[in-house]
Amino acid sequence: MLYTALATTLTLFLTLPISTFAVSYNPWQLSPLNTHSSSGRPGNDPNTTISFTFTDPNTATSSTCSASFLPYNGNQTDFPTDYQKCSTSADPNNYSFAFKIDRFAGIGDFGLTLEHGYRDPAVGTPDFVTAFGSVNVTRSDNFVCEYGGSGVGNCGIVEQGGMPISVPIMELIA
User: Which of 30, 61, 127, 166 has the highest count of CB atoms within 10 angstroms of its CB?
Assistant: First the structure.
């Protein structure tokens, strides 16, 4: 009985929102972040793509992430709603970077949820931590889009002086 109560309390503590903890974490950064929609002309790749570098300044690690999916047509749900693994980190203490698209209204208006799993001996045993964050990306002075007459479109962070997209860490699970 005591063991069950302790296990329940520990589980609840370890899945609390990050704002509950006294430790502060720097937001993750996405840069460069680029999106592309095809012209739809015969012979061209019909897919929409999104790609970015996902950097966690708290662990000084990063990974490259990307997805390719059929073009948005107003009621589409073909964009990846399940977590997509990013490139594998060579650092054995940083196991996984992943993302999923929560919302997609076009290459200049979408939402992402990101996940980073890593080892942190400070949390005890087991020492594996999974952190989650989310962000809505929309066209702005920093994230600009250009469209051609054929329907082709490209969006990205402004090259000269553009700031990375910040992603607040919302939850940690240890």
Answer: 30
> Could you count the other beta carbons within 10 Å of the beta carbon of residue 139?
13
Give the closest residue to 35 by CA, choosing from 63, 81, 72.
72
pTM of the model: 0.80
Exposed / middle / buried, residue 4 (Cβ in 10 Å: 0-12, 13-18, 19+): exposed
Q: What is the mean pLDDT of each run of 10 residues along the chain (174 residues)?
A: 38 44 80 89 85 93 91 69 82 78 92 92 85 95 88 85 89 89
Beta-strand pair 128-138/143-147: unpaired
Contact call for residues 108 and 35 (beta carbons, < 8 A): yes
> CA-CA-CA-CA torsion for 146, 149, 150, 151, nearest 10 degrees?
40
Contact criterion met (CB below 8 Å) for 21 and 138: no
